Each structure stands twice: as structure tokens, then as C-alpha cells.
Amino acid sequence: MIRPGYSTLAKATGALNDNIGALCKQPSPDALQAARDAFAGTADAWSKVEIFRFGPIVQDHRYERLFYWPDPKSIGLRQVQDALNKQENSVTLPDELAAKSVALQGLPALEYLLYGDGADALAQGAKVVDGTAPLPEVGGAGAFRCQFASAVAVNVDRIAKNVVEGWREGSAYEKAFLGPAADGAIYHSPKEVTLELFKAFASGIELVRDQKLGKPLGQSADEAKPKLAAFWRSDLTFANAVGNLEGVRLLFEKGGFAQVVAADSPGVEDSILFDLDHAIEVLGGIGKPIAEAAGDEALRTKLEAVRVGLKSAGQTAGDIIARGAGLSFGFNAMDGD
Question: Is the pLDDT of residue 219 over 50?
Fold first, then answer.
């Protein structure tokens, strides 16, 4: 469940790195589209493991370096734009980029480079010579931008592969996770591992309901802020939310929580799965960007109904799981307390 998810992510980041490298060497509209397709594949793979905020992904600030979001004050965006405007050579060097602000290193930064203002130049003039440093006079306006994007892609790929290594069979973390012990350095009992998974389940639902949908939608169409949404530039907002919920659903079924609910209240597990499946179906069927959906009253009604269903599923499952597994429910799922 967890390990296969990260393996899929690492395969996607590898393809992303390859496609952006190819774009920089031979820029064309087709090469740019291939890079964007690879980005979408990476975003999809990330979405399914995004709910997990424990283990190797949180070591060395990997989570934030991979996905600096939300960014309500556009701090990260300004840093990316500033680096582009100043053409800071250090952001084109993966080793130096990895030591910089987390906002410059991950998928949100790469989304802006591939889809933001000026991104079309990537198809017209992004060249590197001998696979090393860019020559501004060769390749035009897209050269620096593409080299920046390439460094981010390398960084993202390294992070994903490091996480896979951290979860590999026989690794220190894998042993601690599967065999908690009273004198263990990370987990002291099976209940602590269960709590870690439970927090991922609860926070995953909350993430979609409040952050991915609630904040961008606002209280009304007039108060909507679609640019607060994840992946809005690439029109992957709803696909990202679907991936999050698919991860939640898989965790509920394969993580043992459905069985806990069924043992406590037979049949309720089916109701929870129905709410999750309905949310996935509705969100997956929205064929409009978040900016259009947020202003469409009919779609807003559907989305608000999804939010209600997710709240019901989260509360019902949370209460039963906490009781059935003997877990403390007095924490904020999103901050991990």
C-alpha cells in the first residue's frame, strides 16, 4: 500500500526527469507536451501518497521540498519568479538547489515553470550544450527556465528515490514500523503505528474537504479563491483531490480500518466506502478548471454535497476507529499533534 505507492511515484519522477531533460536538449511543442504529461503523471502518483506525513518522506524536510503547499501569501511563487527574473545560476544546479528554499525545489515550482507565465518559451528556445551549463545566447528566452525546471526535476526524482530507499525491505524505518518495540527509537507499540495510519486517514479526508475544496470555493462564487487550489495552473486540482481520496480509500480497506468499523457497527463500513466512492466519482467527473467550477452554481452545489459526505464519513469512521482501536482522538489531524 505505502511502499508500492512510493515506488510508483519514483517511476513517475524518473520519467519526468527524462522528459524535461529531453525538452531542454531538443525544444519543441511536442517535447513540452511530453514534459507536461510526465508532470501530470507525477502529480497523480504523488496524490495517492500525499496523505502520508510520516516516515522517510518527512526526513530532511522532504515533504515540504517536494510539495510546498498551501502557499496562501504566494511566498513560494514570488521566490520562483524572482529566481527567473534574476536568472540565478544556482537554481539550475541540482545540488545547490537542494540547499535553497523549499519553495524552489518541488512540484509547485515546477508547475509554474511548465505552465506559468512565459512557459511557452520552453518549446521554442531551451537548449543546453553537452548536457551541462546553459548558453543564454543559444536557445533564447526558454534556456534558463528549462535548466531551472531540469534542476527541479532532478531534485524531485532524488527525493522520491530516497523515500523508496527509506522504505525498502530491511531498512531501519521499515523494521521499526513493522516491529514496534518498547525500547524502539521510533515506535514503542503497535498502537503507535495504528495511530500514525489513523492520522493519515483522518487528515486525508480533512485535507480534501477543507484545503483542496473548501478554501478555493469560499463561502460563495463571489468569494471564491481558485488560485488557492493545488495544481490550478495545470488543471489538475480535481485529479489531485481524487488521488488523495483514492489513497484514503485504499488505507481504509487495506489498513484494517474497514474491519474495525465492521466489527463495531456492521454495515457502516459500506456507508463510508459509498461516501468516498461518491466523492471520487463526482470530483473525477468535473471537466472544468477549478476557476470555472468555483463560479458555477450547479457545480458548487455538487461540491458542497461532496464536502458534507466527506465530513460525515470522516466523523463516523473516526469515532468508530478511535473507539475500536483504543486510540486518542484529541488531536488536530492536519498538524499531527
Answer: yes
Instruction: Mention every residue, 6+ apart, whose C-beta is less than 8 A from residue 168.
Output: 174
Q: Tell me the three state secondary structure of residue 134.
A: strand
Same domain, 118 and 203: no
DSSP letters spanning 4-42:
HHHHHHHHHHHHHHHHHHHHHHS--HHHHHHHHHHHHHH
Give the pLDDT confidence of 130-176 residue by residue, as tens digits: 555 544 333 566 999 999 999 999 999 999 999 999 999 999 999 99
CA-to-CA distance for 45 and 300, rounded, in angstroms?
27
Amino acid in position 93: L
Within-domain flag for 334: no
Domain total of the chain: 2
Identify the CA nearest to 167 among candidates 62, 241, 97, 250. Answer: 62
> SS3 for 260?
helix
Residue 184 lies in a domain: no
- Residues 124, 6 within the same domain: yes
Q: Tell me what pLDDT residue 257 has.
A: 96
Domain assignment present for 337: no
Residues 174 and 212 in one domain: no
Cell of 302: 455538487
- DSSP code per residue over 65-100: HH-----TT-HHHHHHHHHHHHT-GGGGSHHHHTTS
**Domain span including residue 271:** 190-325
C-alpha separations of 24 from 19, 28, 109, 264, 310 in Å: 9, 9, 17, 57, 43
214: DSSP letter: I
Residue range 311-322: mean pLDDT, rounded: 95
Kindly state whether residues 274 and 295 are assigned to the same domain.
yes
Given 155, 178, 201, the domain boundary residue is 178
205 domain-assigned: yes
* Domain shared by 6 and 143, yes or no: yes
| pLDDT for the residue numbered 1 | 86
Query: How many other CB atoms are there within 10 angstroms of residue 53's CB atom?
Result: 18
Q: Same domain, yes or no, for 144 and 12?
A: yes
pLDDT per position as a tens digit, 107-143? 999 999 999 999 999 998 534 445 555 443 335 669 9
Closest alpha carbon to 321 in 218, 230, 196, 227: 196
